[in-house]
Specification:
Elements (H helix, E strand, L loop, with lengths): L33 H5 L20 E6 L5 E2 L4 E4 L14 E4 L12 E6 L2 E6 L6 E4 L6 E3 L4 E4 L4 E5 L2 E9 L8 H6 L1
Parallel strand pairs: 3-4
Antiparallel strand pairs: 1-2, 1-11, 3-5, 5-6, 6-9, 7-8, 7-10, 10-11
Amino acid sequence: MERDAEDTILRSPRPIAPLPELDDADTIIRERTASELIGPPPVAAPAPSFSPPVSAPSHYRFVVNTHEAIGLDRPARIGRKPVQPRILPEIRARLVRVPSPLNEVSSTHIEMRQNGTTVVVTDLMSTNGTTVIVPGSAPRRLRPGETFVISPGTVIDIGDGNRIELLPLQRPGVASATPDARLKQ
């Protein structure tokens, strides 16, 4: 019978010779396995867990018309009668209403949002536009729907005398001057 290289040959196991009967005077020597010689693996004490102190995230703040500071811990939608977006994100926006006796400010005029350490302002297709004044730069008029990165000290003019100023990043646990105190300095 010829065999191919792919043939598998099965053979019956070799018969095990019967063990001789032992009496109490016989000594049995058997080979130990490595795990028996070494023993079970040592149980390590749990490593002390080190976790850096968890600090509250830092958030920028802004003031509208030099009133009370408002945190950017969530997006802010600013306008004459602001509303939430039609498709609600996980975090609902803070709605900030501003006066507009001449109706120059759109219902939901702009959105300010902090992304990490960056703040962006978006003109939400406003009717009368948004002007961004970055310190040391010429005023910039945003196109409807345009997003612009701003820095502390930037003032956003949305019309009808409404001006929004981005304040410096607030570190947790650090007291800061109120907007009125800043104006007196």
